[in-house]
Amino acid sequence: MNDLSPELKKLYQNYNGDIKKLLQENPRLDYLYALSEIRENLLDWFEFKPDATLLQVGSDYGALTGLYSRRVKAVTVLDPCHNNLSFNRLRNQKQNNIHYVNNDLNSFTSEEGFDYIVFAGSLCEPYQDMMRKAKELLKPEGMLITAISNRLGLKYQAGAKAEQFCLSRTELKELLCGSEGNEGTVQFYYPMPDYRLPVTLYSDGYLPGKGDLTHAILAYDYPKYLRFDLGKMFDEVCEGKQFETFANSFLTIWSRHEEN
Hints:
Elements: H1 5-14, H2 19-25, H3 29-35, E1 53-57, H4 65-71, E2 74-79, H5 82-91, E3 98-102, E4 114-120, H6 127-137, E5 138-149, H7 154-157, H8 169-177, E6 185-192, E7 200-203, H9 230-239, H10 243-246, E8 249-255
Parallel strand pairs: 1-2, 1-4, 2-3, 4-5
Antiparallel strand pairs: 5-8, 6-7, 6-8
């Protein structure tokens, strides 16, 4: 993946941190994904414990770091890319509870462990190794949060470019809970149009019905010409009760124990 950190850092400084103006005058999709405040919609609703510690795997240009730092006691940002961490530090320089670590997950250690560990677009192969390491770093009552694209997502079947690392719902559930489904519990959520710029969040307890997504499917990365009528196809999968299978992306909350 192309690292935008050097150019983003220069732009951020040129605009004196005015991200809204920066995006208005530099309307690039990759800048939008890196800087838009819409990114925070993914977990803005989540009730983090204020005295908790959180490990963010992947700096992601600080897109969600500010949200975490406002919600928990201490945030550790882990990334092997020094430039990405540098831009994140600049972007969130007013926050004093963020610790930046230039390392990869496999080599990282922590004696205390974390209450939350988050993969927001940063889960990659080898999946099993990353998941095993993350669970080792998680406190017994901690939560593992993952956002990832669905390789069966309708947007990709319609012609949108798929991300390098993506999993189906079944693959993700098995990765989190094991092939027998008895390794902890997981809650699934479905950000629309996707986890990178989420506008609406569905869950297994609140799924869209026929007509709910007919005209609410716009995404910035859809190709000009789609392979099929995406609105009609979403109507079909919703009516056939298959939205969970073909949603564009997933947000999951995993823990070792069932929630009360």
